[in-house]
UniProtKB/TrEMBL annotation:
Domain Na+/H+ antiporter MnhB subunit-related protein: 195-317
Organism per entry: Actinophytocola algeriensis
A GO CC term attached to the entry: plasma membrane
Keyword Transmembrane helix: yes
Domain of life: Bacteria
MrpA C-terminal/MbhD domain sequence ranges: 14-78
Protein name: Multicomponent Na+:H+ antiporter subunit B
InterPro entries registered for this protein in UniProt: CPA3_antiporter_subunitB, MnhB, MrpA_C/MbhD, MrpA_C/MbhE, Nuo/plastoQ_OxRdtase_6_NuoJ
Limits of the MrpA C-terminal/MbhE domain: 121-176
Length: 331
């Protein structure tokens, strides 16, 4: 067994052990922390499989912002899971066992792990996307070429899904226009902890700068609008946790966030309309620089990635503000 395979098997064993532990826990806080550990180990597996962009997303979303939002949910509910009668758990157990057995049976037809003769390695499309895209799009990062250019319309659909989901969650959390001051709420305020306050104040510029780096460097390496938006949101969430929600909302008012949620899809679609007005097809970035197709692709991809980042950051931050503004329920 090679070292690479051994590391993968070890990480897989950690994932299985973590999942089994979570399934048997009733303490929701501990389950949330283990869920973050599960996402972190999964991100490590993606890195080993050379899926660095996916690993980046998993680390930013699964380990970072999702954990904070789950903790926000726990502040509105009980700290322990209610006991479910055994008879009610039986159907779920049957579905899980059946699904797991089906997946294990189907996995027998998969090629050998790491085999160079898999369809992914030998299919002609691999050569098209990995090599020809360098000439067609002029973007070193193939993932960005595929997501933002080749299937830019699909990515626009994904952004609309993020927009719709964000609006739906905010609507479920309460009236969007109801001011936070009108409700009694408990705010997590750590401003009295000097170490946290000083460290957070020092980290905030670097967090936001790194988010910009991830956004603008997505053409050349792992990153892009989704990851940058989550990092932006994580920075403001950290600011709200340490300095207080009221101060965070002074820096970034909720009404501004609600406007920014809609700015992303409008900007993304507007790029496509601009391409059509310039004589090209919808989301045909070449029209931005007819004499230099690569430059046009860079401009178009940067615009749509910025649109994605704005909406993702606004949605994540608004959801956090929405949870933090809720009245704490009885436990």
């Amino acid at each position: 067994m090679t070292t690479f395979v051994l590391i993968n098997v070890t990480l897989l064993a950690i994932l299985i052990a973590t999942a089994l532990t979570i399934s048997g826990m009733r303490t929701l806080y501990a389950a949330t922390m283990l869920t973050a550990l599960f996402s972190l180990v999964t991100a490590c597996l993606f890195v080993l499989l050379d899926a660095v962009d996916v690993a980046f997303t998993e680390a930013a979303v699964g380990v970072g912002i999702s954990t904070v939002l789950l903790l926000g949910v726990l502040s509105l509910t009980r700290s322990r899971e209610a006991v479910t009668p055994r008879l009610r758990r039986l159907p779920g157990a049957v579905v899980v066992l059946f699904t797991g057995g089906t997946l294990i049976y189907a996995s027998q037809d998969l090629p050998e792990f790491g085999s160079p003769t898999t369809p992914v390695q030998t299919h002609p499309l691999t050569d098209v996307y990995l090599r020809q895209s360098q000439e067609d799009i002029g973007i070193p990062n193939t993932v960005t070429s595929v997501l933002a250019s080749y299937r830019g319309l699909d990515t626009l659909g994904e952004l609309v899904v993020v927009f719709t989901a964000g609006v739906a969650v905010l609507a479920l959390l309460g009236p969007l226009m109801q001011p936070a001051e009108a409700r009694e709420r408990e705010v997590l305020d750590l401003v009295d902890y000097r170490v946290l306050r000083v460290v957070t104040g020092m980290l905030m510029p670097f967090i936001l700068l790194f988010a910009l780096y991830v956004l603008f460097h997505g053409d050349f390496g792992p990153g892009g609008g989704f990851q940058a938006g989550v990092i932006f949101a994580s920075g403001f969430v950290l600011y709200g946790l340490v300095f207080g929600l009221d101060r965070a909302q002074q820096v970034l008012p909720r009404r501004v966030l609600w406007v920014l949620i809609a700015v992303g899809p409008v900007l993304y679609a507007g790029v496509g309309v601009a391409n059509m007005l310039l004589g090209g097809a919808f989301l045909d970035y070449d029209t931005f620089a007819p004499d230099d197709a690569a430059a046009g692709q860079h401009i178009g991809i940067l615009l749509v990635e910025s649109a994605i980042g704005v909406t993702v950051a606004a949605v994540m931050t608004s959801i956090f503000f929405g949870f933090a503004n809720r009245v704490e329920s009885s436990r």
